[in-house]
Amino acid sequence: MTTKLNLSELDYWQKQWPKDEITETVFTLIMDEDGDLETAFNQLFQQKNGIIPNMANQSLWEVTLNVLRQEICGENNSLKSQIKEVRNNPGKTSIITGIIIYIVEKCQLPLDTALATMIVLYLLKVGIDIFCQYTSY
Q1: Using CA of residue 137, residue 73, residue 42, residue 39, what is the dihedral sign?
Q2: Is-contact 112 119, C-beta < 8 A?
Q3: DSSP alpha helix (H) spans, the chain
Q4: What pTM did the predictor assign?
Q5: pLDDT in tens, 54-83
Q6: I need a surface site. Which of 29, 93, 100, 104 has the fewest CB within 10 A?
């Protein structure tokens, strides 16, 4: 399943996000891929790490989301609450930064803040409750 951000969503979230070079790079890449988060994520991962690992029957994006689903959707109600808070009050850039840092620290894949930013955009797009209830693609 491909999840895309349309131009108005990209514009909206770009205005809410902390302003820095990483953010600009991420949003530019997503726009270049017509809002396709998975394609932009894979492209950025490849730029940073050289190759995309070959994973049986799942994309790197799916594996990454599955790892995060296990971390986020279990006992960590505070992170779920923070994601909901950003959806309700998007101007709180300190919360966005905290979510990105949490994802970088918890994911068992080589992620940096740029890759985590794409994941947070995905979580904001689909909603944390829907994300936590997905069991397959």
Answers
A1: positive
A2: no
A3: 7-16, 21-32, 37-49, 60-72, 77-88, 93-106, 113-126, 128-133
A4: 0.81
A5: 777 788 888 888 888 887 787 656 778 888
A6: 93
Q: Tell me what the pLDDT averaged over the chain comes to.
A: 84
Higher-pLDDT residue of 87, 9? 9
pLDDT of res. 136: 42
3-state secondary structure (DSSP) of residue 40:
helix
Q: Domain limits of the chain?
A: 7-132
**What CA–CA distances, in Å, run from 108 to 4, 64, 85, 134?**
25, 8, 25, 20
How many residues does this entry show for the chain? 137
Coil/strand/helix, residue 4: strand
